[in-house]
Amino acid sequence: MKKKLLFIVGGIVIIGLIGYVFTRVGLSQPQSQSNKIHVTTSFYPLYFFASHIAGDKATVYNITPAGAEPHDYEPTTQDVARIEDSKLLVLNGGKLEAWGDKIKDILKNTPTVVIAVGETLANQNIIEEGESSLDPHVWLDPVLAKKEVVIIADGLKQIDPSNAEYYETNAQALESKLDNLNQAYVVGLSKCQKKDIITSHAAFGYLARQYSFNQVSISGLSPDAEPSPQQLANVAKFAKKNNVKYIFFESLVSPKLSETIAHEVGAQTLVLNPIEGLSDEELAKGKNYFTEMESNLKNLRTALECE
Ligand SMILES: [Zn+2]
Do 199 and 285 sit in the same domain of this protein? Predict the structure, then answer.
């Protein structure tokens, strides 16, 4: 009887010990997670690509908040602290981030690696009020976006060589999805009646070049640049002359100017998303870079009257 009791008590002690060990392991889990490599990105598309490549090996934090415009966002002191705490900062460059040069200066003598993925890929200028500026919107062309993925993966391999193979596998999965997206655009825009689109700001220059259509924008390279009455009159004149039936607007800025022109020339409005940021509501609905690129293709096919 005594032996049996001893056996039961011993069993309880062992179960208790096992439970304790499991709890300790469980408790140590969040700590090991916080020891993950920190990566920061300047705005949504780079965040989307970097977090897919990083998988569970790094924590990726996005600086421009959901629903905000990256062209005019200014990082807070907390953002700067987060960047300094990162091993890698992924920027677009080419003046997309107004704060890009300043942060490069701050990080000059720190171990944080900075890569500007769009800088080497941006090679198209836009003339605004007689001045030529480099167009930073490379992520909207799937072919250039694929090159961005390669550059981001190289950045991750550089700061964390022990997981290089893991990053390469994830990058290749993204690259093949971007190949499919490119193929969908090639096929979807191959037989179209029209050639011209009118957009809110000049974000689709690389996309237009890749698939051979023509972009006319109401604002310039940045959505907050107010167009002059003359500019608005020119866009309306162009729309009338070329019988443009759809005027595009985007979700992060007011559709007012697009609506005014559409009303004036008897056209309708449609969304063409420059994917510079998704709102919390859009993210909660499961929207992402690929769903938005697909719905852009659908609306482009409507506006360009494609078969
Ligand atoms: Zn833009």
Answer: yes
- Statement to judge: residues 206 and 164 lie in one domain: no
CATH of residue 194's domain is 3.40.50.1980
Interval 31-88: pLDDT, tens: 445 679 999 999 999 999 999 999 999 999 999 999 898 998 999 999 999 999 999 9
Same domain, 180 and 195: no
273 alpha carbon – ligand 1 mean position (Å): 10
User: 12 in a domain, yes or no?
Assistant: no
CA dihedral angle for residue 45, residue 46, residue 51, residue 54, rounded to 10 degrees: 150
Looking at the chain, how many residues does it have? 307
Tokens 């107010």 belong to residue: 226
Measure 79 CA to ligand 1 centroid, in angstroms. 21
Total domains in the fold of the chain: 2
81 and 173 share one domain: yes
- List Cβ<8 Å contacts ≥24 apart for 217-221: 218/247, 218/257, 218/258, 218/261, 219/257, 220/126, 220/128, 220/129, 220/133, 221/126, 221/128, 221/133, 221/135, 221/136, 221/137
CB of 137 closer than 8 Å to CB of 205: yes
Model confidence at 10: pLDDT above 70: no
Q: Write down the pTM of the prediction.
A: 0.87
d(CA 290, CA 295): 9
| Distance (Å) from CA 69 to ligand 1 centroid | 8
Across all residues in the chain, what is the average pLDDT? 89
pLDDT (0 to 100) of residue 27: 40
